[in-house]
Design brief:
The chain is mostly beta strands and about 750 residues long. It contains two helices and 62 strands. A five-stranded antiparallel sheet has the order 1-45-44-43-42, with no helix packed on it. Strands 2-41-40-39-38 form a five-stranded antiparallel sheet, with no helix packed on it. The two termini are about 30 Å apart.
Length: about 750
């Protein structure tokens, strides 16, 4: 755009018409300080990838004929098709192949039936009351090994050696008919029906377990009529004794048996529908169990899993929930479930698998997103990611504000972001030569939205957090050493929009915010200034009635060392003005030095950003008036607080949020650029600076649906700034390498 430096002459009438700009009130108060332990200094999952699958599937099961841990089976009940989905060794692509069956089937069980240490498949057809034994043969076919005809409709089927003859046996149970029907293995894929086990127990769920120290397998059978867990001890030759019942006090939907503690015994984790909860029953190794934990849930969980997710030796709990969430309950030596981390889980999470997908000895997760038609891979947080092209990390639910700064004083750029759905701050630390690790999560107040970085040291990081919905700000200090937070929260006069923040001569904090809506209905500018030990003074500035403040920026506009304010307002005659008032040693903002009327008939909101765009030592101002214009405009500063008339920088750009604009040198050419999150186009766009405050037309850098916020910084130490996006609906953070983004005009934007 052509540069214009048309001067503005301010008549005395223009300055007098708006009368005195600010009326100031001084209020002294103490912020409420809340100190707590961090929600978690350990996390579960980091890198994330979503793989499209060919259709909507209801069922998923980990499977590998070749020994690869990266394979799963997908199918729908009543279908003739079984899909084998395998993630490639680079973990970047998913290959699928379909296996056709002669008859429809409802469920699949994977087991080694012939002792060759490779899995075969039990294909269960409930309507035909039949189990077909099949094996996959290359490349895309199934070969029959035989079948079993059943007298009942199978609710479930499990495979194990119940008589210690080293041959697998098959147990079948039907919810509507008491008892467990055994099929005893007599040779490779040959079975004969045995004597019914627990003939009087209506079984809804059945597991193989080891309840004591012998080598004979035992059973845990859920009596769904009495809501009791029956423990059946194996006594040899396929016989069992029902010796203990555990009352579950609810409608059991899923049961997992696992040793939760490193030196512990077998425990049970139960998922209950009514009441919506999880119960953990701790075993003593001698056959007795006690209720260790009852974890209430807001809504019934869809699925649960158990695995050591943070490599501390203790197995943690995972739930899939709706509204979509992937929730981790960390298991500490003191209490299970007290530490909780929430992740996004697609649009319709339906099935969960915990397995070591990348063979790094840490548990990863696969989630079947049914309506989203995707297979979601969550890699263990211990797996660092070096940014070479692009990376994606799972965050909390509905990620929003994001910053890229050195958060722990090691000289490397790290990332922090807010999660509006899980009310948390996620911190991703950068490790030299390793890259970004998975998030550490910290609790914050409800509905956080905007995040700004204040300062850091080797032991602490400090942030300013804005909560417009609840009209609050907080000053959050995270202590890396003792894993604690101090969160100082204060109510604001309205929906606080952070404008600037700094430290004084004695390291005291101060920050300005613009309150667009207030209880009194009069927008205001507020300064929070620290007096000591989180004791603050709040100074609220308002225009004299009937003037109305429509937006502001606070910066050093005349280089005298005091903050000044540029603002848009509606004056007493109903006209709209742009003005500058200078600050002084007492921050009174009473000296208006510049003002002119705007030709626009209606202005409801404005956004102003201060930056020395033309690098002449004077602060310039970029602004947007969303209504009636969809433009970015620029006025050039003269160094004394006065400005030129505005020049248009970009058109067809709709700004509805201050965080949509970043001003910095993106490509390292020494010239200031502008980056914009153009939400209605779903893209980050780059206005490349040409010098002299001139800019090229916008070009795309990256595109994604529902970009939340974005940040720039050199993550991988190659001297080029990289891009980080929060994807609000998807629940992830996407990273792009700067060398890929800024390789010149004509490149295809990354997707």
């Amino acid at each position: 755009m052509a540069r214009s430096r048309t001067d503005v002459c301010n008549s005395s009438d223009s300055l007098q018409r708006s009368s005195q700009f600010f009326a100031a009130t001084l209020i002294s108060f103490w912020l409420t300080v809340h100190q707590s332990f961090a929600q978690s200094q350990q996390t579960a999952f980091g890198q994330f990838r979503a793989f499209p699958i060919p259709e909507r599937f209801e069922r998923m099961l980990p499977y590998s004929r070749s020994g690869s841990p990266r394979t799963a089976l997908l199918w729908n009940g009543g279908s003739h098709k079984l899909v084998v989905a395998e993630i490639d060794s680079s973990l970047l692509e998913l290959r699928t192949r379909a296996l056709r069956t002669a008859a429809p089937f409802d469920e699949i069980v994977v087991a080694d039936l012939d002792g060759d240490k490779k899995p075969e498949l039990l294909r269960i057809d409930k309507s035909a009351k039949k189990i077909s034994l099949v094996v996959e043969t290359d490349p895309d076919s199934l070969r029959s090994l035989g079948s079993l005809s059943l007298a009942v409709t199978p609710t479930g089927v499990i495979v194990g050696d119940i008589n210690n003859d080293r041959r697998p046996d098959i147990l079948v149970f039907d919810r509507d008919n008491p008892g467990i029907i055994p099929f005893i293995g007599t040779g490779k894929t040959q079975f004969r029906q045995g004597v019914t086990i627990a003939p009087d127990t209506p079984v809804g769920i059945l597991l193989f377990v080891h309840l004591n120290n012998d080598d004979i397998i035992d059973l845990a059978a859920y009596d769904w009529v009495r809501s009791e867990l029956h423990l059946l001890y194996g006594v040899g030759q396929g016989k069992f004794l029902d010796q203990m019942n555990i009352p579950l006090e609810g409608d059991l939907r899923e049961l997992v048996a696992a040793q939760l503690a490193p030196q512990g015994s077998l425990d049970f984790v139960a998922r209950l529908l009514r009441p919506a909860s999880m119960q953990v029953w701790e075993g003593d190794g001698l056959g007795d169990f006690r209720l260790r934990s009852r974890i209430p849930l807001k809504v019934p969980a869809l699925a649960i899993g158990v695995a050591d997710l943070n490599s501390d030796g203790y197995k943690d709990l995972v739930t899939l929930d709706r509204p979509p969430a992937f929730r981790v309950y960390l298991n500490t030596s003191d209490e299970l479930g007290s530490e909780q981390i929430d992740f996004s889980a697609g649009t319709d999470p339906h099935q969960l698998g915990l397995q070591d997908v990348d063979a790094d000895s840490s548990a990863d997760a696969l989630v079947l997103d049914r309506d989203g038609r995707r297979l979601l891979l969550y890699r263990a947080a211990s797996q660092a990611g070096v940014l070479k092209d692009s990376l994606e990390f799972v965050t909390g639910v509905r990620p929003r504000g994001i910053v890229m700064e050195d958060l722990n004083g090691d000289g490397l750029k790290d990332i922090a972001l807010l999660n509006g759905g899980s009310n948390s701050l996620s911190m991703f630390l950068n490790r030299r030569d390793l890259g970004l690790m998975g998030q550490m999560s910290y609790s914050v107040a409800a509905n956080p939205r905007y995040l700004e970085f204040h300062s850091s040291s080797d032991s602490t990081a400090r942030f300013i957090v804005s909560y417009p919905q609840t009209k609050q700000l907080s000053f959050l200090t995270i202590d890396h050493r003792d894993q604690s937070t101090i969160n100082a929260v204060i109510a604001t006069a309205g929906e606080g929009e952070l404008l600037s923040w700094s430290k004084g001569e004695n390291e005291e904090m101060r920050f300005f915010c613009y309150n667009s809506t207030t209880v009194s209905g009069s927008p205001s500018l507020t300064l929070f200034q620290e007096l000591g030990s989180l004791r603050f003074i709040e100074r609220s500035f308002r225009l004299t009635i009937p003037n109305a403040l429509l937006g502001a920026a606070v910066a050093h506009l005349n280089n005298d060392g005091f903050p000044d304010v540029a603002y848009f307002f509606r004056n007493s005659t109903g006209k709209y003005e742009f003005a500058v008032s200078l600050g002084d040693s007492v921050l009174s903002f009473r000296q208006k030095v510049f003002s002119y009327e705007l030709p626009d008939e209606v202005i409801q909101k404005s956004y102003i950003w201060a930056h020395d765009v033309d690098q002449d030592g004077a602060m310039d101002l970029l602004f947007s008036l969303p209504q009636p214009q969809e433009m970015l405009k620029l006025v050039w500063g003269k160094g004394d607080g006065t400005y030129s008339l505005p020049d248009t920088v970009a058109a067809s750009i709709r700004i509805t949020d201050r965080s949509q604009v970043r001003i910095l040198d993106l490509d390292g050419d020494g010239v200031v650029d502008i980056a914009v999150n153009v939400a209605h186009r779903g893209s980050i766009e780059w206005l490349k600076g040409k010098g002299g405050a001139k800019f090229e037309d916008a070009r795309h850098l990256a595109s994604a649906p529902r970009i939340g916020h974005f940040a720039f910084g050199d993550l991988n130490g190659d001297g080029v700034v990289d891009l980080a996006l929060t994807l609000t609906e998807k629940g992830t953070m996407k990273l792009y390498d700067g060398r890929m983004l800024f390789r010149g005009p004509g490149h295809e934007p990354p997707q």
